[in-house]
């Protein structure tokens, strides 16, 4: 790693600046490294220097300083010294070897007691944990119903005067109740309110209605919605569990993508059309911190297996075995916007809380005011973004086939095609 890459490991700018100043030979003694570790003693405010060590395999660090930041400035500084070639090769001192040994011990899994008593004990503990979470979630749902009733009494317009602290209070209650899905829905509502705009009140009322429906049904979910309600509350299923279930084998066409960043987690969502199943599915990747998730699938078409998660419409999938991708061929499209919107009804019955759906229409043209007009003369508003500009550049004023995402208010173009032709991704 070079110096810039090392400084990028700092938890904040203050640590990076302090580490850069500390990375001078006069501040260090007994610097050294081998193929596994890097170490050194750094002058501190006390009599004893701080013992600093870095595991070069995964960049884990330890330091005897009292800092609560990880990595601390000393751990970053010793890596800067190493990047500059100031840490000679050598044998690690005893304190470094002891730290490495402790890490290895922690990594080594303890043998699992598979006696009938131990198996029964673990099963009982799991059941107790599940029951405790269910009770916590239901408590959170009850608290949300009270909050929604208070909002209804005061009126939607009153939300615009609430500060961030008021919103964070109810979100924290949902997180504490182990219902992160509800916290996310409230964050989405707050974003609508803070964003303002001409129709913010209508959009906020729409989201309040969705929250009320979820909070009402969550107390006693109908069987056909049980899985999707659990998902919306924030219950998760691991990708490994999903991969262990049967896959959907099909020819899949990857066309639509949306990137999101909530400040904590970056998300890349892709929408994929299954030719034989004649339905859309989604593939999602998340990345925390400064990592960028990137798409799980390349744009184009492939034959392979996708493993479905328990609920959702469109259904979320985990990627399984697949063949190499090729250029996408034409896909099935709706004849008019009326047909396209009517086709969403069964999906909304499966998941009433889904707000983003793929939508297609043949032979549309972009008119003034950026509306996509179909063959019947009906129009949907189009998001004014780079994708719309690209569609205009490719097709000018001529009709084209449109594929994109509908959020209930506007249509965001994702791919376009000559009428009846192969789609070309524009966003």
Pick out its properties:
globular, five-stranded mixed β-barrel, six-stranded antiparallel beta sheet
Q: How would you sum up this structure, described in words?
A:
There is one protein chain. With 427 residues, the protein is an alpha+beta fold. The chain is 38% helix and 25% strand. The chain is built from 13 helices and 15 strands. The protein has helices at residues 3-7, 13-22, 73-83, 94-107, 116-154, 164-176, 180-195, 200-218, 226-233, 239-243, 337-342, 345-350, 386-395, and strands at residues 28-33, 37-42, 50-55, 61-63, 248-261, 265-274, 279-288, 300-308, 315-322, 357-367, 371-373, 379-381, 400-406, 411-417, 424-425. The protein has a 6-stranded antiparallel sheet with strand order 12-11-10-13-14-15. A hairpin with a 3-residue loop joins strand 1 and strand 2. Helix 6 (164-176) packs antiparallel against helix 7 (180-195). The chain is globular.
Approximately how much helix is present in the residues? 25-40%
Mean pLDDT: 93
Number of helices: 13
Quick one: overall form?
Answer: globular
List how many beta strands DSSP finds: 15
Radius of gyration: 27 Å
How are helices and strands ordered from N to C? HHEEEEHHHHHHHHEEEEEHHEEEHEEE
Give unreliable regions as ranges: none
Strand order of the largest sheet: 12-11-10-13-14-15
Straight-line N-to-C gap:
34 Å
Helix-strand category: alpha+beta
Largest β-sheet summary? 6 strands, antiparallel
The portion of residues forming beta strands comes to 15-25%
């Amino acid at each position: 790693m070079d110096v810039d890459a090392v400084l990028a490991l700092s938890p904040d700018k203050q640590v990076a600046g302090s580490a850069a100043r500390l990375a001078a030979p006069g501040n260090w003694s007994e610097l050294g490294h081998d193929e596994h570790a890097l170490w050194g003693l750094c002058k501190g405010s006390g009599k004893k220097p701080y013992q600093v060590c870095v595991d070069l395999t995964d960049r884990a660090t330890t330091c005897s300083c009292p800092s609560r930041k990880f990595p601390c400035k000393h751990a970053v500084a010793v890596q800067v010294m190493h990047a500059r070639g100031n840490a000679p090769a050598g044998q690690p001192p005893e304190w470094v070897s002891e730290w490495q040994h402790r890490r290895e011990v922690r990594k080594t899994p303890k043998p699992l007691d598979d006696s009938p008593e131990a198996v029964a004990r673990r099963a009982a503990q799991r059941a107790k944990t599940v029951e405790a979470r269910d009770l916590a979630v239901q408590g959170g749902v009850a608290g949300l119903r009270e909050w929604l009733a208070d909002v209804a009494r005061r009126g939607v317009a009153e939300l615009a005067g609430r500060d961030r602290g008021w919103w964070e209070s109810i979100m924290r209650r949902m997180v504490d109740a182990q219902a992160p899905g509800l916290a996310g829905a409230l964050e989405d509502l707050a974003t609508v309110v803070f964003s303002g705009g001409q129709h913010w009140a209508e959009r906020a009322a729409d989201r309040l209605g969705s929250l009320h429906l979820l909070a009402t049904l969550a107390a006693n979910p109908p069987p056909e919605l049980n899985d999707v309600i659990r998902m919306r509350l924030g219950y998760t299923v691991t990708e490994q569990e999903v991969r262990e279930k049967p896959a959907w084998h099909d020819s899949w066409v990857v066309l639509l993508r949306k990137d999101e960043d909530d400040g904590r987690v970056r998300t890349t969502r892709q929408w994929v059309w299954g030719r034989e199943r004649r339905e859309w599915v989604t593939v999602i990747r998340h990345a925390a911190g400064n990592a960028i998730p990137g798409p799980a699938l390349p744009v184009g078409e492939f034959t392979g297996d996708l493993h479905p998660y328990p609920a959702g419409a469109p259904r979320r999938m985990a990627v399984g075995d697949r063949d190499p991708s090729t250029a996408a061929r034409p896909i099935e499209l709706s004849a008019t916007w009326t047909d396209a919107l009517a086709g969403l009804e069964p999906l909304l019955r499966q998941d009433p809380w889904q707000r983003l759906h793929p939508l297609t229409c043949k032979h549309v043209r972009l008119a003034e005011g950026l509306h996509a007009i179909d063959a019947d003369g009906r129009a949907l508003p189009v998001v004014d973004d780079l994708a719309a500009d690209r569609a205009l550049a490719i097709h000018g004023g001529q009709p084209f086939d449109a594929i994109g995402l509908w959020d209930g208010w506007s249509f965001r173009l994702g791919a376009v095609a000559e009428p009846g032709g192969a789609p070309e991704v524009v966003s």
